[in-house]
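Good morning,

Attaching, inline, the C-alpha cells for the sequence recovery test we're adding to the shared suite. The designed sequence is right after.
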C-alpha cells in the first residue's frame, strides 16, 4: 500500500483553460479521499492522471514516494473501478475476479486462493459460477471490487461507481464500500458529484471547481465551515 502525493498538478488540453490547475493533494497511506465537484471541474481528469490514462502537463505525481509521471498504468499497480464495472458478460464471477491474475500468468493455485479469499470478503462465494447478467447491481459492483482486490494493488480508484444504481442500492453500497475500505485499509481515491457520498464516505474531501482545489478537509470540517 502507498500514499499518493499530488504536487502542483496541471492538465492542459490544447490551448484552452487548464482542466486541472495547480492542484496539490496528499492522500495518506490507507486514507479514503473523496474528489467532488460539479460536472466539468476536472475530477475525472485528475483521477485519470493518477491512474496513468492521461498525460500530466505539469507537477509531480508520487505514489509510495516514487515519481510516476512517466510510468504506464500497468507499472503503477493501482486498481480502478469504473462506473459501468467493465465486467466480462461471458465469464463467470470466478473468472471475472481471476482475470487480472490470469493476465499476469499467476499459477492456478495462487489464483484459486486469491479468488476464494476475495469472494469470501465480498460475500460472493455463493455466486462464483454465475454470470454478470444474472447478478444484481450491488453484486456486480462487488465483483468489480473483487477484481481490484486480488491484484494486491497499492490503491483503489473509483470513478462514480454508484451513479448507475437506484437510491436504495446506492445507500447499501455506500455502507459496503466504506466498510470494505476500512477493513482492507487500502488507500482510496473516489470521484463523485454526489454530496451525500462526499460527506459520508471519506476521511477527507477535496472540492474542485474549474480545475482549482477549493477546499481539502474532513467532512466534519466542511459541515461546520461550508
Ligand atoms: P469532471 O470529471 O469533473 O466532469 P473532466 O475531468 O471530465 O471533469 O473535465 C474537465 C474539463 O476538461 C472539462 O472542461 C472537459 O470538457 C475537459 N476535457 C476532459 N477531457 C478532455 C479531452 N480529452 N480533451 C479536451 N478536453 C477535455
Ligand atoms: P464524465 O462523465 O467522466 O464527466 P464526459 O462525458 O465528460 O465524462 O467525458 C467522456 C469522455 O470524453 C472522457 O474520456 C473525456 O476525457 C472525453 N472528453 C470530455 N470532454 C471532452 C472534450 N471537450 N473534448 C474531447 N474529449 C472530451
Amino acid at each position: 500500500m502507498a500514499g499518493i502525493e499530488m504536487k502542483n498538478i496541471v492538465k492542459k488540453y490544447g490551448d484552452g483553460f487548464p482542466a486541472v490547475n495547480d492542484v496539490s493533494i496528499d492522500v495518506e497511506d490507507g486514507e479514503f479521499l473523496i474528489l467532488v465537484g460539479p460536472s466539468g471541474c476536472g475530477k475525472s481528469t485528475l483521477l485519470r492522471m493518477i491512474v496513468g490514462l492521461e498525460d500530466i502537463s505539469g507537477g509531480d505525481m508520487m505514489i509510495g514516494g516514487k515519481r510516476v509521471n512517466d510510468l504506464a498504468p500497468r507499472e503503477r499497480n493501482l486498481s480502478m473501478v469504473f462506473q459501468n464495472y467493465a465486467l466480462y458478460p461471458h465469464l463467470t464471477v470466478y473468472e471475472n475476479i481471476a482475470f487480472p491474475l490470469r493476465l499476469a500468468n499467476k499459477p492456478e493455485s495462487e489464483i484459486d486462493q486469491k479468488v476464494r479469499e476475495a469472494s469470501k470478503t465480498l460475500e460472493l462465494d455463493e455466486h462464483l459460477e454465475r454470470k454478470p447478467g444474472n447478478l444484481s447491481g450491488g453484486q456486480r459492483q462487488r465483483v468489480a471490487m473483487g477484481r481490484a482486490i486480488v491484484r494486491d494493488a497499492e490503491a483503489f480508484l473509483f470513478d462514480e461507481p454508484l451513479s448507475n444504481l437506484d437510491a436504495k442500492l446506492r445507500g447499501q453500497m455506500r455502507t459496503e464500500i466504506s466498510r470494505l475500505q476500512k477493513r482492507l485499509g487500502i488507500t482510496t481515491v473516489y470521484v463523485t458529484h454526489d454530496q451525500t457520498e462526499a460527506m459520508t464516505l471519506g476521511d477527507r474531501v477535496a472540492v474542485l471547481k474549474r480545475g482549482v482545489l477549493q477546499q481539502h478537509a474532513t467532512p466534519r470540517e466542511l459541515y461546520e465551515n461550508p
